[in-house]
Each structure stands twice: as structure tokens, then as C-alpha cells.
Amino acid sequence: MNGYSFLSVVRQALNGHKGWPVVWRSPEPKKNYDVVIVGAGGHGLATAYYLAKNHFIKNIAVLEKGWLGGGNTGRNTQITRSNYFWPQSAAFFDHSLKLYEHLGQELNFNVMLSQRGMLTLAHSLHELEGMRRWANAIKINDIDAEVLTPIEVKKLVPLIDLNCRFPIRGGFIQHRGGISRHDAVAWGYARAASAYGVDIIQQCEVTAFNISSGRVTGVHTTRGTIGADKISIAVAGHTSELARMADFRVPVTSMALQAMVSEPIKPCLNTVVMSPIIHMYASQSDRGELVFGGGADLYNSYAQRGGIPLLQENIAALLELFPAFSRLRLMRQWAGIVDITPDTSPLMGLTPVQNLYISGGWGTGGYKAIPAGGETMAYTIANDQPHPLIEDFGLERFESGALIDEGAASGVAH
Amino acid sequence: MPEHPGFDLSQINGRSMVQLRVRPGTADAACKALQLPQQPLRWWGEDPAAYWLGPDHWLLTSDTKPAKDIIRQIDITLAGQLYAATDMSSSNVCFALRGPAARRVLAMGCGIDVHRSAFTTGHCTRTHFANVLLFIVVVEDDNFNLYVDRSLARYLRNWLVNAGEDPITRDLKYRAAEVSNEHDSTINGKSNQTG
Amino acid sequence: MLRLSCPWCGTRDELEFSFGGESHLTRPTLAASDAIWSDYLFNKENPKGIHFERWMHSYGCGRWFNVARDTVTHEIYAVYKMGLPKPDLD
Amino acid sequence: MAPTQKNRLTSGGRIDRSKPLSFKFNNRKLQGYQGDTIASALLANDISTVNRSFKYHRRRGIMSAGVEETNALLTVSDGKGDVPVVRTTVRALVDDHQIKSPSGFPSVNFDLGRVLDFTHRLWTAGFYNKVFKWPNWHWYEGMVRRMAGLGNLPGGEDGNRYFHHNLHCDLLIVGAGPAGLAAALSSVTSGARVLLVEQDHELGGSLLANRALINAVDSDLWISRTRSALEEAVNVTVMTSSTVSGYYDHNVLTIIDRSTVGVKRFWKVRAKEVLLATGAIEQPLVFENNDRPGIMLAHAAMEYVNRYAVKPADVMVVVTNNDSAYQVAFTLYDNGVRVPAIVDARKNIANEIVQQANQRGIPIMSNSVILNTFGTSVLSSVRVGTLSDDGKSTVNPTDEIACQGLAISGGFNPSSDLYSQAGGNLQYAAELACFVPMQCRQRVTVAGAAQGKFSLAEALTEGACAGSEAANKAGFTCAPIDVTTSTTSSYNLKAVRITPAGDSSRKWVDFMADVTVADIELAVRENFVSVQHLKRYTTTGMSADQGKTSNLNALTLLAELTQKPIGEVGTTTFRPQFMPVPMGAIAGQRHGDFYTPARLLPAHDWHVRHGAVFENYGAWKRPEYYATNGRDRETAIREEVLALRRSAGLFDGSPLGKIELTGPDAGEFLNRIYVNNVLTLKPGRIRYGLMLSENGIIIDDGVFARLADDHYLVSTTSANADRIIAWLEEWHQCEWPDLEVIISTVTSQWGVTTIAGPNARVLLQGIESDIDFSAQALPHMSVATGTLLGVPARVQRVSYTGEMSFEINVPAIQSQRVIEALMNLGGNRIAPIGVEASLLLRTEKGYLHVGADTDGMTNALDVGFAGIVAKKQSDFVGRRSLLRADDQRKDRRQFVGVEPLNDNENLQSGAHFVTPQDEGRRSQGIVTSACFSPTLKRIIGLGLLERGFERKGETVTVFDDGRTFDVRITEPVFYDPSGEKMNA
Ligand SMILES: Cc1cc2nc3c(=O)[nH]c(=O)nc-3n(C[C@H](O)[C@H](O)[C@H](O)COP(=O)(O)OP(=O)(O)OC[C@H]3O[C@@H](n4cnc5c(N)ncnc54)[C@H](O)[C@@H]3O)c2cc1C
Ligand SMILES: NC(=O)c1ccc[n+]([C@@H]2O[C@H](COP(=O)([O-])OP(=O)(O)OC[C@H]3O[C@@H](n4cnc5c(N)ncnc54)[C@H](O)[C@@H]3O)[C@@H](O)[C@H]2O)c1
Ligand SMILES: Cc1cc2nc3c(=O)[nH]c(=O)nc-3n(C[C@H](O)[C@H](O)[C@H](O)COP(=O)(O)O)c2cc1C
Ligand SMILES: [Zn+2]
Fold it and tell me: pTM for this structure?
């Protein structure tokens, strides 16, 4: 892999940047692979990368129906945090955050992790008690969290209106939380995986599985049939569709989750702010736009576009907290199709079909999970056995009832 | 409410309101017996007036009879059948909204078509209005009754008064649910483009 | 913004309705196995295409009814009362 | 000294020379006229550099006369504060405007940031991804963030008012150019409700920049006649200064309406049919240094002359690849601008045009393109070259042609944003070298330039046809009007927009995002060959103009570089908003008190008068406590608790959900809903029950009373009232329609006043009522109906505090009267109780507070309902889930009481039970409620603890904010465990 550094940029600048190699290759699909991963989002790409790097499997393809990183990985609000309630979640997501903390260096690709703090607001004393409960859970899990008074909140976020319709009584912050650059994560993994020899095949939609005696052996795609020893599904909003192709059912609902950006302005919001009651969250990107969103459209949808009700809802919420943004203009709104599980925790591990694996149910919050999701799925695929960090996130929990309900414990999940 | 050239808002006190629900499938009989409107979104009658709320659900109101009299009448008429007649006189507050801008103000709060051609005397509907459930009755032309949950009455009143601060509602030349085009000429040039 | 047609009240904005998820599910009895029960509880069709679902006109007549809606285009193919079978859409 | 307006023409234009306006640009005092935009006034005053570019800090001048502007997005103050990113090309000038260039330090004319331009080769696309990784990005971030952004956050108070409106129409016509106007005229007779929306403050569209003869009259006259005709038509509504910003599902569109000063309206329109007559946007040409001040879209130059009476420059070269720019050249020439050359990429140019040029003595340089431009602060000259035979390079560079302006025309691209948002497909039309609408699943038609019909004649006739057709489709009848023009226009475009020579890192594709050809070449070299990757890697089209003048050129380049047809390359996705919309307008009135409705108690004013401090409890504003005699929160709560325990308290419980169920199957229905056995309840009696989700999780608790054989009254928690009502309706209507039961919600009908405490009965017995309040007649958990103070009343003996307690329901209108009567009667023996005291009282009693003591994982068994479940034979909602292995686990978190071993320990809600440190600290559950009990004079709490039921008496460690201490696990009931007081 050709190194990226300030020096190499200077060197290339001198010859008009003519010497940069492709960031990833675009090979023709081969007939057979050891592992095929369906979906070149962050999770699929990271899985391929760790399979190659940690498990020395080199004959891997990632099949993508559109363009890599064009799913939710390319349309999320970039929040990276590990302030989870249940120990299983905390362990997993904090592992992910730790990987993020060195990801730029590991991939030799700057993913622009900005640990500017992730502030969650409480609008009543009872909510603040809930946050204390949450913050303590996080601390017991050895993750940083600090409960803040309204004055401390105001200091951190001067534009906030503490006396809004639901006055702010405090909040808590995970200082290591923040944002990173979504596209860069997809591209960085794609580049690193490609350098290990992983074939990333775009414009290649999986349309069916070959399954014989309960075991998967390949896929049909819009670019022909491809054989594989092992196959992993990482298609986010399309998880149900892929499961249907393999004849099993998954507990997910696909819904449109919107996000939007304002016109870019000079820095005025230096922390990621989220309010579970005034349902919205916002941050300001390095280019200056406010990036924000709220809840999902609460009906099944595969339409990757936003609507009016939530647009108004999200903006009203944003302005309720930040009246100073009223004259700022909205530039663009879009949506991604998220796969929401009943307990809002991911679905990872084995499936009823042998050698077929799944990474899904990422819902509204799987961006932050990409490094750990990739690493643990790689392990799971390589060993045909769930990685210890994800044992509790399997499909079985819906039969046994052992749900891990983060939504119930912590309100929002992004 | 402060004087407004476009509309007038006042509270109607002392109105008896009775909610009637009957067993699904028995609506026909109930309608006949009690003279209830069977066609959705319609009201008729005087004392009591009967409003369609749902296929087996009505509101009956009167400004002269107490609720218990209305209920007694129902009890007599529907004796032996399954129904529930409940006094709701306290549950809702009723406002009268009148005036040339009344329709425009209504259209600020809800997405139903309040144009005269679509929403006229004899019509009534519940709808999502300014984030509350509102029951709107077209008493006649530009005269509406608005029924709202008692706990939300103050909010609704303030909301309507605030809506009246949009200059569009003060424009008397303005035609019902259409947009006025007169007010364009009152502005100076592009003064507010893309602000 | 969706505009749904209530069988009684006519076409109204999405805001007036509550979504109730997939329709035509059969609730298993107490004797059902864990597998059948969890399938009923959690595993939904979630199709990319026509979804048979139920909505309530909560800011209107308060009635639940069924809708056949395309989850990609959001086009509404049919609206029918609760208890009626899935319509034939061809 | 009077400002000069050096470039102002002495006659013509739609400005009012009798109304001069003064304004300041970067503190320089200048003058313009009523009718000017800020941009036209700046041009009139010969201001060339208005801004610095986003990344390289290049000088930038005004490049358009419309919404597609990429450079003149300035900071404008109208006295109320600075607003950034104002599109000065469409913003009317008003007196006293203060206009500032947002960038440039120390000034826009001398900018130290130019160093970025000198070192531009470093800052290519993807630069950030390659560097700034050590030690970490955050280290560099601050510097980078400060350089980004198109201006500062708007300053000062927002003086605007924002309002929402809704509208229905049969036909919505977007755009009032010739096509839209002809369409609207055609629909007049149909009777359809027609709405015509135009973003400009004037009707006419491109006709305002042009001159033409329509139906044998001057276009200005035609426009004003049309306007009158439309205004007279009762079925047509015209909205100007209003932009359709979004096209959503089910033909719902949004409009941002700026037609009233100081007011912004956001309209939601539900249209049966939509006709898009949105016109087309001229595309720039790409050549070396094509971003200098003085370079402007050709039709913009013409608009400045015709509409604003401003010459963009004294000497202007025109460069084009199509016929339309000749009209521009002639207009410039005819208004005194010297045109040294028309540079045309085409070899063959129609004779009549050549003749017209010859008549004016304007030389045409055919088969030629601009190679480069020169000038320091403003354009001073251009160099032209001839295209080689294969068109892939240039030859014969000329000497520099001196000029101060350059009008560029790369042809038009239909304004398809809305069509595309609606789900419409676009197709590349090779002969026009642009994308045109194809088909759409929504009810929409396109006409005029928006459909790629670039001649006025077509716009008029097709507009007229489309208007009547759309009205017909909406169910109305009318025929297209007759409208003709004698003005001919030809197009004959040659698809050359990018000069195949020059330093690609100096050839701009996206002016606003500062993207050059070199960036696109680099992206392609690095395999960002999907349009979507290209966009994101280079940021082309991602700035505030959303690529209105850059997307097409970027696609063209991409296609060229990847050797694919443009159609195959495709476009990026158009999304709302078409033009950025102030967020205040989208929120509308939803702010402050109107953000979400607050529900008030029926006796709200009474509580206000009695010192209630209100807090939000769900949607309700309820007394948190009463600041009687100025006491603080803590004191108030303590005193309220003690007052109730010692004598009596009055609590307003009106928000409690109240649902009546009537019918022979009412009991059976409830029996399927509640965990408890409902059928064994006797009339007149009350039972406490739990409701579960199908997943076995507790969703609500409360009491249900049997008023009569077939008549039940269900109380839900205040927070869940609406949810439970919907829940019951859903089960009844969808799952068990056969059950004969009628559900009626009566929550707001009844005001609830709870009188609790040892003196509750005596107090009540003093009030006028036909209800017997004695223990025999009305024991705990029973209900009586009658009258109280002459009004109907229902009294339930239920207790949330552990004291003898009467819940008095009267019609809400009477609530305040009853409260007053009881308080008067009680005198100092009764005190009003706020929500916090009430919660504390129930903590002492160990009663569950659903949502606080339970969470989304707590099932019925976890709170001690195993016995009740076991006794019940039949199914109920959630029962099957309780049979699962995990629900039966012995080590689930179970409901317990807790007290600190050491009285001084401040046990707080939110602390966790933890395993000892040496076992590896792990949470075993949570303290869900905790308080200092005024009654017991010690700290107590409730919690959910693993295996809690079998651990009563055990000592457990709790963790709170880094501290740990020990607590004892107890029964949850701390106060009056035998229930003596409650049952009294
Ligand atoms: C608006 C929004 C905001 C969000 N905000 C956050 C946030 O702040 N923080 C956070 O942590 N998470 C957030 N999320 C969630 C996060 O984006 C996702 O959980 C995450 O990106 C999922 O990654 P993925 O790789 O699993 O899926 P994706 O990135 O969606 O990748 C799946 C890929 O599979 C492809 N695919 C689908 N079907 C097929 C097929 N048949 N054949 C081949 N390929 C196929 C798709 O084209 C897609 O590229 C947000 C999501 C949205 C929509
Ligand atoms: N000579 C050429 O080659 C050439 C090329 C293009 C256009 N034209 C001229 O353009 C005219 C075409 O007429 P037309 O009516 O199709 O287009 P037009 O440009 O005259 O009118 C379009 C109108 O739509 C408005 N509009 C666009 N988007 C809007 C939105 N989202 N909300 C509100 N308003 C919006 C614009 O402000 C404009 O007034 C003809 O006169 C034609 O000669 C000529
Ligand atoms: C974090 C983030 C920031 C974005 N910033 C911008 C932006 O500055 N300008 C812009 O046009 N779009 C921006 N977008 C939106 C994208 O243009 C695009 O809408 C989104 O990736 C979804 O893709 P689609 O609209 O092509 O479906 C941003 C998206 C994300 C996720
Ligand atoms: Zn209805």
C-alpha cells in the first residue's frame, strides 16, 4: 500500500499528483472465493479487512449492489461514542471506539476522528436521575462519563437555550465521544482491504443464494454466479431481503432515518449534542455545516428519502434548543434505510444456514460499531463461532427472550 | 382575544356534550332511532345537534338541555342495545371562530382541505391541528366551532391568537382558503428574497 | 409526506394516523413453541415492495384499517377494512 | 460626494431611478435604485471583487443574476444583525443595507489567505485523508474548522416571524416564465383551483432578461396583461417571492414564501397535478482561470443590461458553444458595451446570426475556445485558441484580447431538481448536452425550458398545452390558449464546455466548493469513478448552490475521463431543498410554548394561586411542589409529605388516564389485557393490575374498578394514558372484534382530587355529599358513585401513599370548586401535595412507579407477580413471553427495597448495585428510587437487583459516581407494612 503522508503529498504535488495509485482496485469477479461478503458498507469492508489481516484469508470478495459506502455508512451523522448501558454493549462499543482512536494510523487514512465530546441532555430531574443511572453503568464498564449541571452544559455549548420549553436540568458527557468522517471510514477500509488483495466488486447485486443441504455455497449476482465457502451478509436496511433469499426470517424492520445539513458557517457548536426528550441530535462538521437528525419515520420503508413531518419535527427541535440557528438555512435533507431490531441491539453471528453469517440490525447506530463489528465478524467467520464480544448478539436471543434493550435503558441510539 | 379584523374567537360555555358509541354493526339502527348522521363527517339537528365522529361514534350537543337529559333520551331510545352514552361536557372546550380569515387560520393548523368547496356548512371533522386533536364543525360558511380537550384549551387559544399575527390573516380582501395575491403589491420589490 | 385514505374520512396527512405494523398476523396460543412465538412476536415480513399493514386514524375517526403500500415508492395500492382478507392486487 | 453608479445605463431597465437607495459595501458608501438587487447595485458601482473563494481564497466576482449564484453570497445586515450566505443576485436592495464580504483577511481585496492559492497544489481533493493523522486529527481540527464555513452564524435577534400554512389545489404550476404563464392562462377557464408559484418577485421568468414580441405585443406588456388576467380569475392564485423548495411523496410540495417583509411562510401544498415550468440554468465553460471577477454567465450579463440597466463591463468578450449567446452579445453591443469578439466553439454558425454580428461589426472567432484569462484584481484580457480537428487539444493561441468582462455560455441545463425529488427519471439528451425529464411515478408534467424546450415559441405553446392537459387530468376541462411569438430563437449547441488545454488545477468546475478539473482528474485516477464517489471525494455540488452550475460539467468530465457515455455516468441525487430555506421558517410557529402543547390541569389557576411550582410531567404542567411562604423545594416536599401523613393532603390527579368499558364482554376483554384475574372482581370493587406488552414487559400499572356488571373503569398512569387507550382500541378492533365491548375515554371529563391521610375521612364527611365515606360502606379498594357539592361524583378508595385515601372524580369543570371547598373545610388540617411529595410518599410505601422502578426489560415476574400469574388460568397479553427461559431466569433483576447501612450515605436514584471489586466489578442492578424519608427520618430506596427476592437482608455494595458503600436489601415496603393505615 502506497503510504499517505505529508511528505508523499508534497512529492506528488510537485509532479501534479500524477503518481497516486487507485485507492482500491475494481477487479472483475472471480469464479470462487473463500469468503464472500455481501454489502460494501463500513461493516462489510471492515470485515473483509480484518479477515485478511487477522485471519490471513486472502481470497475474499465484497459484493456491492451500488457504490461502496453508499448505504448508511455514507449517509449517517457520524456520531462515534461508547456510552452504552448494558455491559455487553459497552464492551463491544468501547472496543470499537478504541479501534477508532487509532484507525487513521492503522489504515494510513485519516478518518478524522474528532473526540469533541458527546453531550446528552436531561430536561427534568427525573431524567437526570435516569442519566445518573446511565452514567454509572458506563463508569462501571470502565468508560468515561461525567454528569453535568446546567451551567456546565451552557459553558460547553454557549448557544443552547437552557430555558426552552423543556428546560435543561443537566446532562452527561462522554468526553471520548465525538464524530469522525463517514466516507473516510468506508474508503479507508476499502483501500486497506484492497491492498490485502480483497476484491471489492461494485454494481454487483446479490439476487439469490446457492444452498445445498443446509449449507451455503455461493451467490447469484447481477454479474453472474460466484462460489464461496463462506458468506456473510452485511446489508443494513436490506437484511430482511437477504435473509428471505436464504429462507430464514430476521427480527428487523426497515425504516427511513433522516438527516440534514445546514449551509456551512464558521464554528459555533463544538460538542455533539443529543436530547432524548427534544428528540434530536446535532454536531457541526469540519466543513461548517450543522449535521443533525432525530427519530426515524415510524413505518416500514425502503425509500431512501426524507419526508416533511420529520423535517419539521427535527428542525423545530433543533431550534428549540438553539434559537440562534433560526436564520441559518437548511441545505439538504436525505435518508438512509435502517434495520431496527426489537431491542435496538445488533444481530451478529451465525444463521440457521451453515457457513452463512450475518451482521445487521445496526439500526440507527451502527456507524460507530464498524471497526469492532468488522473485527468480531471476521473472527466469527474464520472460526465458525461467535467472537466472545458478540456472543449475546445472536439471533437466538429472540427465542430465549434474552434481549439487550439499549433503547429501553438509554432512550436514543445513534 | 384582542380585536382582529380577520376573525373573532370566543369560548362557548355551558354547552352540553354527550358522546355516544354503539356496538359496531348497529349504527344503522341507532342512526334511525336517534336521527344521527350516518354519512361520515356530517352533522345536523338542532337540539341536540348530532355530529359524526366515527362509524359508530357521535357527539351530541345542546345549549339548552343538560347532558343527563340527552343521555336519558338515548337510554330510552336504545334500551336493550349495547351502547355507551357518556357526558363529555367537561371534557372539551368549545370555541367559536368566525370571520373572513377563519378558514385561512384553520389552514395554518391542519392539513385538511378547508376550502369552501370542500368543507362547508354541515361538515365536521376531527383532525391533527397544531399538534392537538381538534374537532372542527362548520356551523355555516365562515363560522366554525372548535372542540378541544379541556387541558389544551389555553394552548389552542394562544395558538390561534398567535396565528392571527401573520399579516395574511389581517388582509380582508383575502379570499377564503386561497392565497391572496393582493399582498404582493404591498411589498417593495424583492426586499425579502431568500432571506 | 404520505397521504392515506381512511375508509371513512377520506384522504388525510400522515400526521393524522398511527402506524400499526404488519397486518394479517395470527396470534399463536399459549401452547405455541418458543420458535413459533418469537417468530410471531419479532419476525416480520418487512418486504421491499408491497406491505400489508395497518394504520389507525387516530386524529380522526379512531378506526384501524388495512393498507397495501409499496415500501419503495410509497404508493398505496389498496385500503380496506380491518378483518377483510388481503386483496388481490393484480 | 454622490456615488457614481459608473456602470448604470441612462435609460431602460425595471429600476426606479426616482427612488435612489444608499447602502454600504465593506464600509464603502454606495448608491443603487429601487428595483435593484444587491448584486446589480454592486455591478452598477463597478465593484468587481465581492468575495474570496472557499478554499484557495481567490478573488471572485458576481457570476450570475439568479439563484444559481456561486460567488456573491455575502453577509448582509439589515439593522437586526448580520446574516451570512445571502444570495445577493436575488436579494432586493433596500435602503441602508450593509453588505460585507464574509471572507478575506484583512480585507477582501488584500487577503493573506491567498497563500493557500500559491500553494494550491498541496490542497487537492482528498488531501485531508492523506495527512494529519499524527498524533491525531483533533490536533489539527481547530485550525481547519476555522477556515471553513461561508460566514458567521447570524448575529443579533431574529426579527422575522415564521408561519406555517397549508393549501390544497388541483393544479400547482411552478415557475412563471412564459411556459408557466401560458399554462396558467390556459387553466383559467377550467374552474380548477390553480396555484402559480414564482420565486422572483415579478412574473415573467426569462422574459424579464429578454425582449420579445408575444401575441404581437411587447413581452413586458404581455406579462402585465397576463398578470391582470390571472389576478382577476377567482380560481387562480399567484404567489410571488415564493420558492417551491421540496417535492415529496404523494404530490405534497413545500414553498418558502418571502412575499411579506419580516415574515417567512412555509407552505405545504397538496396538489392533484403539478406542472413544472421551472426553466433552465445556463452552464459555465471551463478553461484556465475561468473564475476571475468579470467573468459572468452570458444570460446574466443580458439580464443586468435589460432588467437592471447595468453594463457588467465596458468591454466584454462573449464566449459560447450555442446560438443563444449571440442575443446577449447584441444586447451588450446595443447598450454601449464594446464586444471585441464572440468566441464560438462551433465551426458552422448560422448565416443570419453571422450577418447580425457583422452588421454590428462584432468579429466571430469560430471553432475557438478561451485558453486563459489574465488580470490582477479584475479581468484584463483573455487568450483564445482554436480547437484541433479531433477537438482534443487547442492550436493557434491568439494574443491577449483586452476586456474587462467575459460572458460565458455553455448552454442550458433544465432545472430538474423538483422533478427528480419527485422520483422522476432524467435522461441525457445528447443533442442538447443536458439532462431532461423522462418519466415520473407522481402526477407531474414538465413544460418549457425545464423540459429542454429552449425556444420561447415552444415554451409558450407547450406551456399552454401542458396547462390545459394538467387541468384536464385533474378532472377539469379547458383548452390551451392561443399564444404565439414572432421572436425566433435557435440553439444549435455543440457539446464543448471544457477547453482541452491549460493547467487543470486552475480550471474551475465548482466555484463555490473550489473544485478544479485537477481534483476530478485526481479522483478518477484514484478510482473514485462513481459519480457519487466523485461528488463526495471532491465535494463537487455539495456547497450551498448544490451544483446548479457545476454538476453537469463535473459529469461531463467524469464521462470523458472514464470514456463512458454521460448518460451511463448518471447524476447525483437531487434532494430538497431546491434553495436553502431558513430553518426558522421550517419550524414555523413551533417554538417555545408552541413547540409542544402543554396540558393544564382543570384547576390550573387554583394551583397557580397557591404557589405551585410547575414542572413538565410528560405533556402536563403539574405542581412539582407548592412554594408556600417562599419555602424551597426540599422543604416544601418534606412538609407536604409530613402534612399528609399527619393529617391530610390534597393531590390533583386529574391527568390519570380514565377509560370506561361497557358491554357484556368488558370483563373478558380486560381479562385478556391484564396480568390479573379480572373476572373475579365484584361490582363496586377495585383491583390493582399490570399490563404487559406481548414481550412480557410491564407497560403500565393502575387500578381497574367494576362499576357495574358490564361496566368497568380503568385508570392508567398519567404518562401512558394516550398510549393505553390506543393499545386497548387496537386489541379490540384488530384482534378481538367479536368481543362485545365499547371503549370510551373519559380522561378529561373527570377532574381527580385525591384526599389522603388519617384525617381524610373526617374531612370528607364534612362536605355535602350523598356518598357514605365510612370504612364499612367504602372500604379500601372500593368505589362509590353519587353526588358531591351537588355534582356527579365517583369516589374510589385507592391509595398511592399508603394512607387512607379517597380519589374524588367530579366533572372537570367542577374540579376547582371541589378543591376550594375541601381546602376551606380542611383549613390547616389539609395541605396541597405536589407530584414530588406524592412520588416520595409512594416510595415510602414501596409502590412501583412504572418507568422509574421498571425499565424496558422488566417483566411481571420481576415485580413479584409470579403468584398472580400462576393462579390465572387463561391467556393474557404477554403471558406467552413469560414462559421463555430468559423470563424465568432465577438471576433476573427483581424489585427490592434498599437502605444504606450507614445513615450518612447519600443513596441516590441512579446508583448501581455492584459485585465486589475482587470478583471484577459488575452491575447487578440499579437503585431506581431513593430519598430521605421525612416520615422514617432515614434514607430509603427501591431498586432492581439480580436475584433480589431471595436476597432480603443481604448487604450489597452500591456504586455511585466513583464512590462505593454498602446497603441492606429489604422488602420494598417501608411504611405501614401491614396496611393498617391504608385500610383504616
Ligand atoms: C441518517 C442516519 C444517521 C445515522 N447516524 C448514526 C450515527 O450518528 N452514529 C452511528 O453510529 N450510526 C448512525 N447511523 C447508523 C449507521 O449509519 C449504520 O448502522 C451503519 O452505517 C451500517 O453499516 P453497514 O455497513 O452495516 O451498512 P451500509 O453502509 O448500509 O452498507 C450495506 C451495503 O449493502 C449493500 N447491499 C444491500 N443489498 C445488497 C445486495 N442484495 N447485494 C449487494 N449489496 C447489497 C448496500 O448497497 C450497502 O452499500 C445512522 C444512519 C442513518 C441512516
Ligand atoms: N435561447 C435559449 O437557448 C434559451 C435557453 C433556455 C431558456 N430560454 C428561454 O427561457 C424561456 C423558457 O421559458 P420557461 O417558462 O420554460 O422558463 P423560464 O426560465 O422563463 O421560467 C422559469 C421560472 O421558474 C421559476 N422557478 C424555477 N424554479 C422555481 C422554484 N423552485 N420555485 C418557484 N419558482 C421557480 C424561475 O424563477 C423562472 O421565473 C423561453 O423564453 C426561452 O427562450 C432560452
Ligand atoms: C455527515 C454528512 C455531511 C454532509 N454534508 C453535506 C454537505 O456539506 N453538502 C451536501 O450537499 N451534502 C452533504 N451531505 C449529504 C450528501 O450530499 C448526501 O445527501 C447523503 O450522503 C445521502 O446521499 P444521497 O443524497 O446521494 O442519497 C452530508 C452527508 C453526511 C452524512
Ligand atoms: Zn377516519
Answer: 0.97
